[in-house]
Design goal:
The complex is a heterodimer of chains A (about 375) and B (about 110).
Chain A (H helix, E strand, L loop, with lengths): L34 E5 H15 L3 E5 L15 H5 L4 E3 L4 H13 L3 E5 L10 H8 L2 H4 L9 E6 L14 H5 L5 E3 L4 H11 L6 E6 L6 E5 L14 E4 L4 E5 L3 H14 L4 E5 L2 E3 L3 H11 L2 E8 L4 H13 L8 E5 L10 H4 L3 H13 L4
Parallel strand pairs in A: 2-3, 2-4, 5-7, 6-7, 10-11, 10-13, 13-14
Antiparallel strand pairs in A: 1-8, 6-12, 9-11
Chain B lengths: L1 E6 L9 E7 L6 E2 L4 E6 L4 E5 L4 E6 L6 E3 L3 E7 L30
Antiparallel strand pairs in B: 1-8, 2-4, 2-7, 3-6, 4-5, 6-8
Classes of the chains: A alpha/beta (about 375), B mainly beta (about 110).
Chain lengths: ~375, ~110
Amino acid sequence: MSNSILESESASGNNTADNTAGDTITNPAGSEPATTVMSMQQALNRALDEVLAENPKAVIFGEDCGRLGGVFRITDGLQARHGAQRVFDTPLAESGILGMSVGLAMAGFHPIPEVQFDGFAYPAINQMVCQIARMNYRSRGTMPMPITLRVPSFGGIRAPEHHGESLEALFAHVPGLKVVSPSNPHEAYHLLKYAATRPDPVIFMEPKSRYWQKGEVDAARHDAGGGSTTGAKVMREGRHLTLIAWGAMVARCLQVAELAAEDGIDIEVLDLRWLKPIDAEALAASVRKTRRAVVVHEAPLTSGLGAEVAQLITQSCFDTLRAPVERITGFDVPYPSGDLEDEYIPNIDRILFGIQRVLEYKRG
Amino acid sequence: MAEISFPLPDLGEGLIEATVLEWLVSPGEQVERNQPLVEVETTKSAVELPSPQAGKVVRIYGGPGDKINVGEPLIVFEVPDNTAGIVGTVPKEEAPKRRVRLSAVLDED
């Protein structure tokens, strides 16, 4: 087996962004950027189609991924185009889906498994933590696990219990796993293509409430501003306060920023994108400028990723912060089913309240 | 509205076809999940197939005595566009509503 494409970047739980990879593709001088409007579903489908075409070792599988094309249509048409050897259905057994991924990765494949809903990931956590995350470490780098696990994640579609969760902190806590979540179709296309070419296991958390949202995708380049695919991204510049979010909460924070502007408050919105490793430099750069930070996530407050983000900001910006970093999150209850979702997921007013508390804070 | 096709599933281990005995629903009818759709006969037994989902029946394939191969279309449903896959609904994009207003005297140093 050739290991040439399988060299691992890192087996450790390095907590700073790896900005070494130059992934920003710039257009040839003078050419117009060719953008296409598509939904996040279509962007993900296109990315997977291209990954299959470019890498003969890539295989896609999961519950209903093959003939049906996925319950969210993300793998629609891929089996017809690439064959049932490369895009196929599995039994309803998440532990088996991830266990098979381990074996395929050992044999030189790049598995791209899907766990149909985030709440179904729990039975697979043994394989993820005990095998996938540590195989490279255990084998002294001779057995990397190039696995891209797609997980339709978070709430917002009024689904029953176990069909909406927010598991990023659970995944991010495991050394050896990388975690990323796109916030719009453009991010989805590029981050999935990037993740699916990594030599390391990446948990790709798709915000299912944003699947149908359309947006412009510039397939030729990821960050027009010259940022890195491996880091966070400023989605809106502002002077007074930084809102930090990922996945579906980015769009909500952008709405909040628009409303805050009506009140004369100029808010920066940072899409964290990578939840492991976290781009600590981008957090520092933004909050050094704004001096105030609010982090927003759907997951429960206690031991949520917001705590990690708040600590990284405090570490780098303690002297300039005007107020403690505020966290606006879900509540410390099991992620509720659809009927109670609106009460649970941070809404615009809860985020505005958090911003107001930070703005009012008086030191000493 | 969108259409979803339901192909004839493998009703035993490795069966390749089934014969329609009687349709229990007809086009235009609204059916519920698990409602019996059709009685079919295989080489092993005669069975009633329950509906995999709720929806309006658009088309049915095959009349009494007709053979249908496993994997070929059996019935097509019409479902609302906002059905999010098998569960949930597509979120509506609404103009943001607010009750909280911000007030702050910001030092600009």
